[in-house]
Description:
Blueprint: E1 4-6, E2 13-16, E3 19-22, E4 30-34, E5 37-41, H1 43-47, H2 51-63, E6 69-72, H3 79-91, E7 95-97, H4 102-111, H5 123-134, H6 138-147, H7 152-157, H8 160-172, E8 193-194, E9 200-201, H9 215-218, H10 223-235, H11 240-254, H12 264-268, H13 273-279, H14 283-296, H15 306-319, H16 323-335, H17 342-345, H18 360-375, E10 387-388, E11 391-392, H19 395-416, H20 424-432, H21 443-455, H22 461-468, H23 478-485, H24 492-566, H25 569-624
Parallel strand pairs: 3-5, 4-6
Antiparallel strand pairs: 1-7, 2-3, 4-5, 8-9, 10-11
Amino acid sequence: MACIRIGSKSDSLRREGQAWFCSSGLASDVVIEIGESSFQLHKFPLISRSGLLEKRIEEFTSTEDGSNCIVKLDDIPGGSTTFELVTRFCYGMKLEINPSNVVSLRCASEFLEMTEDYGEGNLISQTEAFFSEVFSSWADSMQALETCEDVLQQAEDAHVVSRCINSLALKACSDPSLYGWPVSGQNKNTKEKSVWNGISSVNKTDINIADDWWYADVSSLSLSLYRRLIKAVEARGMKPERVSGSIMFYANKNIHLLSNQPTSHDLKDSNNQGSQNSTSPSEANQTNLLEELVNLLPTPKGVTPTKFLLKLLKTAMNLQCNLPCLENLEKRVGSQLDQAALIDLLIPNTGYASETLYDIDCVQRIVDHFMQMHLGVSSTSSPTVAEDSGQLVNPSQSIASMSLVAELVDSYLAEVAPDVNVKPPKFQSLAAVIPDYARPTYDGFYHAIDIYLKAHPWLTESEREQICRLMNCQKLSLEASTHAAQNERLPLRMVVQVLFFEQLRLRTQISGWFFLSDNLDSSQIRDQDCIVEQDRSLVVAGNVRERVSELEKEYQTMRQEIQKLTKTKRRWTIFSKMFARPKARAHAQLIQQKSGHTKLQQGSFLKKKDLENKKFTEMDTTNQN
């Protein structure tokens, strides 16, 4: 921490109760009263440094003769604590100026008119010169700004607050390692490097600092100073994600309903209502704080997590924030509803006249905002390119986002369906916001309908049909269709539709199976034929090679035999003729014998036939007689 030491005289101020005395050997001739404190001092050291004290002492001396001079300074910035330091400066005593007292000294010196006209190197010039060292460090600037809370108006007049904020904004938007240490977020595991004389030093390039290193420090500021700091860092071009992160940190620390469940120590002390009320801020302050922070949140979509926005919305409802704040949060959540989770969307109903467990109307408005942003006009139109905060929405991304929201809404309907106080129009209204093309499957919606009909057995047939009419039976899975076909709670007309579309689906699947089977068979046959032809060609090629080699061998053998037989050709010819003649004669005789035998057999057969015919003729004649 930076500091400057001025003065050379020893400390001669002593305190007795609420009174201060200067033991300089001279009797006191002036009394400075500040509240309940008093300072027994001397006129000359004071009027030689302060224009205001000079005027007040002269005024008192002219009106009161022979009595000690009494000057009241109840409105001095910093009170008696700061005036003690001013007194030391006026007497030339040793004094240390540091970031924790420089702001009050600067404001008090301005109030007391301690300019260069009342001595060179007066307190105003001393404190102004020290600010250059304070603003070179983040920690010193932060400490100086925190002390501005006590003397805010005087610090504003002296332009101390604006300079502290500009210093902090510059460092928050830049590399903090350039402005001195320590700062929040510093890596404690940084390795030190030894130099030649044994002194350890840290290479700042080796230190990793997160983007949120400044969040904890600024979270201790008041709302007015914090708002000005956020505006300053935004003006210097800080990324919206970092600004949003700082606001989230500030809200979680200062809005008690946003924090987690109380610890056992908090529950033990909850019986002490007096101490609890004295330490906790009022509900009005909490409400005002939340409304201001909502206005500070950056506007670009997706910068602030949806989970945190829904957390703020629930808290705003509990604190009964104004309507613009609630509408702002609902629109922010609606613009990025596809990033929400079901557990965060279950907003408890806080109204006294409410009947349902969860605030379905709020979710209805949030979903309406989402659909208006993605569809432009209404939830029944087709997906188009819509404009949101100057950004165009891609149609494909819009459909994907709507599919996520459709799944979220179906899950939400299933969650609120067991509530017997949820009326059919409210259930139908929320379900009808999602267009048909945004639901790739209706299994989740059918599950919600089944739970709702089970929890509301008194619904009429027409009311059941109106609810089920929102369901597209063609987009039910086989398991859901099977369950719906056996569901006695569904209207008969809906069951018939489920059975019809399921039969149509099965018929289409069977036709597709046959078509696929035919194609597979033909392709398999073609593939097998190709394989067989390839194998056959390979086999044939191998056989041909083997056959050619065998024929070559046989040809050589036959050629040799022919050469041998050529020499005895005539002898073979004569022998062949001699052998052929006897064989021909024997063959002719054999033919004649066979033909003769055949004729004999034919003659005996004819004779036998004639005898039989003659016998039958005689028998017929006898029978006639």
